[in-house]
């Protein structure tokens, strides 16, 4: 038979002071409920708030295009004559019918591809030459004094005036058209790069020099980043002028291209094709400008806002 002392709880044998100091047993930590992912409606509301400005601009742009097409349709349907004659202007439906026919014609696609290739070559050469030359002219006063007067004399000459000279300078029509496209985009790029260089804070330049930066580092770290907004402005303007120059050259001396397509449609009295060529030029120019602006946002993320 066991003794009563052996059946007692261990705490009964502990002194009262030890039990008081030990205190009650620690409570288990409360269980946090699992977080539920946000609902689709919440995510959609967040996305709308972040993109509210862009959605508003897109909606206004679509509405303005629809209004333009409606006015165009009414003016051409009723043959309105009010200072401007709309008797021979094709309707939007006629242009759309011409578009559906042209997209199945390999010759029309070849016109577009050749124009895009000429723009790419001429504009790329203008950017490769114009941006470094503008940086050097903006940095070194002697270079600016030598080149700037010549550039200012050549800059006001329109692209169409360069067509006879370009035909004499280059052995083929293709090279002359690319040359005219190069000239059209070169001067806006050069002038805007020079303007950006003139606005660089000289305090930043002196600070870089005091820190021991060499000329190459100053160009890379100070002048070029500070001039980037104006450089991309020049690229955007130059792209628009490049398209104007290209169309003028293709209409006069070209055998292929969207400009030649538009002029040929005028010669053959195909009014719907004339409007189709004009719209194609506008869409291609818009797409080119959007590509440059997108590249600018990638290179300058601090200006996205």
From TrEMBL:
* UniProt biased composition (Low complexity): 15-25
Q: Could you tell me which CDD domains the record lists for this protein?
A: TM_PBP2 (cd06261)
Pro residues bias: start-end ranges: 26-37
Q: Where is the ABC transmembrane type-1 domain?
A: 112-292
Function in brief: Probably part of an ABC transporter complex. Probably responsible for the translocation of the substrate across the membrane.
Q: Which GO terms describe its cellular component?
A: plasma membrane
Q: Name one GO biological process term.
A: alkanesulfonate transmembrane transport
Q: Which domain of life is it from?
A: Bacteria
User: What is the similarity comment for this entry?
Assistant: Belongs to the binding-protein-dependent transport system permease family.
Looking up Gene3D superfamilies in the UniProt record yields: MetI-like
Spell out the InterPro entries in the cross-references: MetI-like (IPR000515), MetI-like_sf (IPR035906)
Describe its membrane topology: Multi-pass membrane protein
Stretch list, region Disordered: 1-37
**PROSITE patterns, A to Z:** ABC_TM1
Instruction: Give the UniProt keywords, A-Z.
Output: Cell membrane, Membrane, Transmembrane, Transmembrane helix, Transport
Transmembrane intervals? 55-74, 119-140, 146-170, 177-195, 231-253, 274-295
The places in or outside the cell where this protein is found are: Cell membrane
Protein name (database record): ABC transporter permease
